[in-house]
Design brief:
alpha/beta, Rossmann fold, transferase, 232 residues, S-adenosyl-L-methionine, single chain, tRNA (guanine(46)-N7)-methyltransferase activity, globular, SAM-dependent_MTases_sf, 33% helix, 6 strands, six-stranded mixed β-sheet
């Protein structure tokens, strides 16, 4: 099972577990997750590509994969890329493990704890991309400090991304989009997103949609899809 350094979680996520898992889901969490989990008790390899059963050329990270629709699809669409998916919510992790039992992805590894532990473990310039889709917006002002996009985490992204690598951010919450654009504008390591606000309303290539996104659209919130490039 993956482990983490001895320090407290940074509390960017809310609930850790929802409804009771089925016996099959519980078995997958106990037996299958340790087989595919990134083990932070081991020193990070110089080349992350060696973490995978498949032969891959580069590695991407998705933080908070939720239902896993995008991550599972992307890993299937890009077999020569390794993917690491982070999700501390147990029920979502169980759902991903069920999907992997039905349709395996040898180029996918998982991590079930605070993403900052993993980010701090990764080597410098080791990732081709980082995805953060529909993170918890923490809409109340007193909770803004719990938003994942902040100066410290952008510093972490800048350290682990290769020059030219992409940080992609999607949200249906206007205030969080503005917050992210402002933080990027103040950070020396990232370029502003290309295109116009109208173009930002277009999903990424191959985007499968998610259940959360469908709910946002039903409720009249328009998603925004941003992509920021790590400067050389």
């Amino acid at each position: 099972m993956s482990t983490h350094p001895v320090r407290s979680r940074e509390a960017f996520f809310g609930r850790h577990k929802g409804k009771t898992l089925s016996p099959n889901q519980q078995a997958l969490i106990s037996e299958r997750l340790p087989e595919v989990a990134v083990d932070l008790s081991q020193k990070a390899p110089g080349e992350l590509t060696c973490l995978f059963d498949a032969q891959v050329r580069d590695v991407r990270l998705e933080i908070g994969f939720g239902g896993g629709e995008h991550l599972h699809l992307e890993a299937g669409r890009n077999p020569s890329t390794g993917f690491i998916g982070v999700e501390p919510f147990v029920n979502s992790m169980a759902k991903m493990l069920v999907a992997l039992e039905e349709d395996p992805r040898p180029n996918l590894r998982l991590y079930a704890d605070d993403a900052t532990f993993l980010l701090d473990w990764l080597p410098d310039a080791s990732l081709a991309g980082i995805d953060l889709f529909y993170p918890d917006p923490w809409p109340k002002k007193r909770h803004f400090k719990r938003r994942f996009v902040n100066v410290r985490n952008l510093d972490r992204f800048a350290r682990v991304l290769k020059p030219g690598g992409h940080f992609r951010f999607a949200s249906d919450i206007d205030t969080y989009v503005d917050w992210t654009l402002d933080h990027i504008a103040d950070h020396a390591a990232f370029d502003a997103p290309a295109g116009t606000p109208e173009a930002w309303a277009q999903p990424y290539d191959g985007w499968p949609g998610t259940r959360y996104e469908a709910k946002a659209l039903r409720e009249g919130r328009e998603p925004v899809y941003l992509s920021f490039v790590r400067r050389p």
